[in-house]
Amino acid sequence: MTTFIKIEEPHKGPVDTTSFALWRLGFRPFYLLASVFAALSIALWALQFSGWMQHAYLQGPIWHAHEMLFGFTLAVVVGFLFTAGRNWSGRPTPTGWPLAALAGLWVAGRVLVLTPFGWAAALVNAAFPMAAAIALAIPFVASNNRRNYFFVGLLVLMSAASMGVHLAQLGVITVPGWAGIQVALDVVLFIMAVMGGRVIPMFTNNGVPGAKAQRHPLVEEMALGSVLATLAGDVLQLPPKAMAALLAVAAVAHLIRWCLWQPWTTWRTPLVWVLHAAYLWIVLHLALRAISMMGGLPPSAATHALTVGAIGGLVIGMMTRTARGHTGRPLRTDRAEVASYVLVLGAALVRVVLPLVAPAMTVPAVLSSAALWSAGFGLYALHYWPVLTRPRLDGKPG
């Protein structure tokens, strides 16, 4: 089937840059919500520790992990896929009141986990990725965009993982809730590996004169296949030695992939080097997790290398680049954006490295990392509030 993509006519007449544009395209509300939530969730975490939220349905580390994945990360993924999906399919993705309703569903999920209403929280949090999957499937199927069908499947899997966490929390199933968290981590890792492979070499060659970032078919297969194998291993609960072997192969494959992208050529271009720096955290996550499987390191180091380093770094980098591109702004950074990169990647270094080299400094490391993370995403939210809520500078739709 042939897909016809409408070519937009150049805008004529005066450009409206003052009206409210938050619901015009998926990245706008979800990037803003995710960044605000990333900054404020540290305060919620502190309130839980202080005993002010004893009525909350999800508490402690399980709340922290759940909200990192099914709150913050999933919001960015959905915002990105709704925006990119329109370009991939040539068909509209949710805008206007349907987009506002999906954003409201996400907000409801964040609120309900802090209330005593466990079943309501479970249903709403599982419903959000499922609704996003359906909304994404409609343009993909209409345009026969089979290359990206798997994103729909991954969102459905995230819905199932979320429900698994909640059913365990509610005592309905005996499988621990952390199993659902691990599956969700693997799914997000695969999404980052796929999208990183698509955009980082392209952004490098487009943004850095003379760069020769490459993609090798065998390396691509090994990198993506090893992540899928890791996901399967976690689902099947393979023995630690087998998982360590899988993770070691994955770490080597992703390191080779990263080197082929010529990261050392990008240091003068923050909009590109932030993505390379974040992707390196995937390599470190896989290596640290392989070591932890053999009992050599605490598993939290590997987990935070993925969540704070890779997810945080790729999210802050992609949110700035795609927001600039889809609002008609030049693809270059200012001081506030570079500062947000440094703060988020600094949070990863402090959270992962300091406890490893000085275990007695774990608590100060956690607090310092939290402050850096909150400052980085808080800066993004403040800086991009007018960008995300106002129309494109070039007058085009979106």
Number of helices: 12
Q: Rg, please?
A: 20 Å
User: What is the total domain count?
Assistant: 2
So what's the overall shape?
Answer: globular
Portion of residues in beta strands equals under 5%
User: Helical content, roughly?
Assistant: over 70%
Looking at how many chains there are and whether they match, the oligomeric state comes to: single chain
Query: Segments where pLDDT lies below 50 for 5+ residues?
Result: 1-11
Can you tell me about this structure?
The chain is an all-alpha fold and 398 residues long. It folds into two domains: 20-175, no CATH class; 208-392, no CATH class. 73% of the residues lie in helices and 0% in strands. It contains twelve helices and no strands. Helix 10 (299-325) packs antiparallel against helix 11 (335-357) and helix 11 (335-357) packs antiparallel against helix 12. The longest helix has 31 residues, at 177-207. The radius of gyration is 20 Å and the shape is globular.
Provide tags for this entry.
2 domains; 398 residues; mainly alpha; 0% strand; disordered N terminus; 73% helix
Topology at a glance:
Elements: H1 27-50, H2 60-89, H3 96-112, H4 118-142, H5 149-169, H6 177-207, H7 217-236, H8 240-260, H9 270-293, H10 299-325, H11 335-357, H12 362-389
Helix pairs in contact: 1-2, 1-12, 2-4, 2-6, 2-10, 3-4, 4-5, 5-6, 6-7, 6-9, 6-10, 7-8, 8-9, 9-10, 10-11, 10-12, 11-12
